[in-house]
Amino acid sequence: MRKTICLSMVIYSCMFLLLTGGPARAAVFNAQFVRCVIPETLTTDEIFPAVICMRNTGDTAWPIADILMYSRYPDTNYTWGAYFILQHDAKFVAPGDTFNFTSNLRAPSTPGKRAFAWQCYYYKTKQFFGETVPAESIYVQQRLETPPPPPPRKDSLLDSSDFEYAGSFKVPVVVGWDEHIYAKSGLSLRIMPDSTRHLFLTAGVPRRYDNYFSYKLYEVALPQLVKIAGNNFSALDTAPLVKNWGVLGWPTPAGDRSDLPGNGGFWWDNSTNILYWSIWHIYYMGSGFPMLSASRLENDTIINLKYWYLPIPRLKAWKGYWGGVTNLPRTFANAYAGGRDLALGFGGYYSICQPASCGPAIAAIHTPDILQDTLNDLLEVLRYVYPEAADRNGNYFAANENIWGYQPPNPWTGKFAYNSSCMTGVFVDLPDKKGYITFVKHNIGRIGYDWGGSVLDGHKENNWYFYDFKDLGEAALGNRAMGSVQPSSYVKIDYPAVSSATTVSGACFDPQTRIMYLYLTFALGSEPVVHAYHVKQSADARTEIMPPEKAGPVFVTQPNPFNPVTKIVLNSPLKLNGLEKAEIMIFNVRGKLVQRLLATNQQLSAGLAWDASNQPSGIYMLQVKIGGHLLMGRVSLIK
Predict the structure, then answer these.
(1) In which element (H, E) is residue 32 found?
(2) How confident is the model at residue 89 (pLDDT cuts 50, 70, 90)?
């Protein structure tokens, strides 16, 4: 790719010298307005084609790749969705010739009569030249359509209303790898023998000038979660560095690329001490490239065990499956995936070339066989092959000449488009909530040049996409078309302290604490951050799972959330000895025991007070042992 670009630049420079008479001659640009083809009326947010024809009246050929049409009065305004029209072509427009600047544009969101004023602009000298488009104007009328109602909500189906922001923390700087802020790290949970929680991450630095990175795996302990107030993140704790494991990657395997860095998502198998991780490269095409790898962590060493290939060309969207690896819930694996307990993903068009998925993608695999080289048992669960695409909102308009020419018909209906990406996802399988969630970054506004596929004026937003287990399962079983599966819901997300869209490159979920952790690049200025979100428990979750007469003793905390005192109240359908002792243990999100209480059945029935005045804000796990029963619950302290 770089050689092609450099050759094009040489040809471009030679043509410019020939047409302009050499470097000694100063370029004189001028332009005359010829015509403008635009609609007379539009509805709000309507996407429409526009043509502005200009004649070169100067004495110098226009290098059209550097000539733009810029909006005027005021300069560079977004009245029509974009402030420039750029053809990005290698052509030259000779003196006396005309050229059509064409683009899809977008009407404003509010009605009224709007001026349509544009002028030629030479990008290299940052100067306007020539005539301005005359006082053309378009009348924008109010759209009469209204947004469709949201789909009916299922109480057990996971959506954004089930999550509450629990807090955040910084990641440490790994000595010698201080450019880790540029790495799109994965995230995986490790539960230690004492129940404390650790996280695996990667730090990377560029080794050469060809976009290759070298990555080191490191392990951190969970610090106390602190909520970000506004844009002030100075109070955040930094996760303690537990261990720097060293380089995660394969050293020059014969027959493959010169290096295979662990630069995708990963998943830790706590029972075998094996880390599964993935490898991807945005420019790579072909079949001779291993995607999944496994390494065992023993003592102080990473022991690489095996790497595997995807079964290409059988897969129609194989680049949708190389973003990372996660685990499948056992219930889903047994019901829909033939017992396959791992999943590869996560889709999105983050590659410059097909075949990638035009939306989230997931494929199920068994724990890989170390004697095999290819993941031949891969079962597709979710993917979209163009022209199939996942749904999205319609706050964008596409370029004219590429496969993403679909134009949204209204502000709330759209399809995955160029540079929409998702790099990670998690499965949530709780007694009261189930679903698959993936984290999408969309380009919004205009998503590309009017010629070619690059983005110059990129605006982005983050979305959470939720999928129903049943929909995914039906596709995996072959009972419905793969590309017909659409998210049960999706929502725009504004992360704390982030002024613009960032990348969620790593995610993991702790079902015991019901906390989801997200790794975001460039989230705190130029630094990454880990945000934590808690899945709220349904008030009637226990009775939904099991009738009260069979559920055993249960307890509640009143109030919840609280500050700083809450009562732990036992509500038991079983006959317990009134003098029976209960042991209450309270843990923080790191799994550390912060307090141990003793009480009788009678005291718990009346309500035992827990004073958390000396504890920081956060989520706490409670374990109550009484009468041979182990009860578990969660409570939020908000100060």
Answers:
(1) strand 31-37
(2) low
Round the CA-based radius of gyration of the chain to a whole number and report it. Answer: 29
**Nearest alpha carbon to residue 290 among 227, 209, 373, 380:** 373
CA angle, 360 then 366 then 367, to 5°: 110
Distance CA 119, CA 301 (A): 62
Strand 274-278 with 292-298, pairing? antiparallel
d(CA 529, CA 357): 28
- The residue behind tokens 């050759």 is 7
In eight-state DSSP terms, residue 161 is G
CA–CA separation, 118 vs 56, rounded Å?
16
The residue whose two tokens read 């104007």 is 137
Phi/psi for 615 (5° steps) reads -110, 145
Across 116-140, average pLDDT: 91
Residue 443 CB burial class (10 angstroms; 0-12, 13-18, ≥19): buried
- DSSP per position, 506-528: EEEEETTTTEEEEEEEEEETTEE
Q: Which domains does the chain have, with CATH numbers?
A: 2-141 (2.60.40.10), 545-637 (2.60.40.10)
DSSP 553-578: -EEEEESSSBSSEEEEEEE-SS---T
Instruction: Lay out the sheet containing 112-115: strands in order across.
Output: 41-43, 137-141, 112-115
Tens digits of residue pLDDT in 299-350: 889 999 999 999 988 888 888 998 999 999 999 999 999 999 999 999 887 5
Q: How confident is the model at residue 452 (pLDDT cuts 50, 70, 90)?
A: very low
Show Cβ contacts of residue 109 under 8 Å, excluding neighbours closer than 6 positions.
44, 45, 411
- With H, G, I as helix, E, B as strand and everything else as coil, classify residue 120: strand
Tokens 């578990």 belong to residue: 632
**Residue 160 main-chain phi, psi, to 5 deg:** -65, -25
Q: Which residue has the tokens 């009143």?
A: 558
User: What letter represents residue 461's amino acid?
Assistant: E
**DSSP 3-state assignment of 544?**
helix
Instruction: Tell me which DSSP letter residue 224 carries.
Output: -
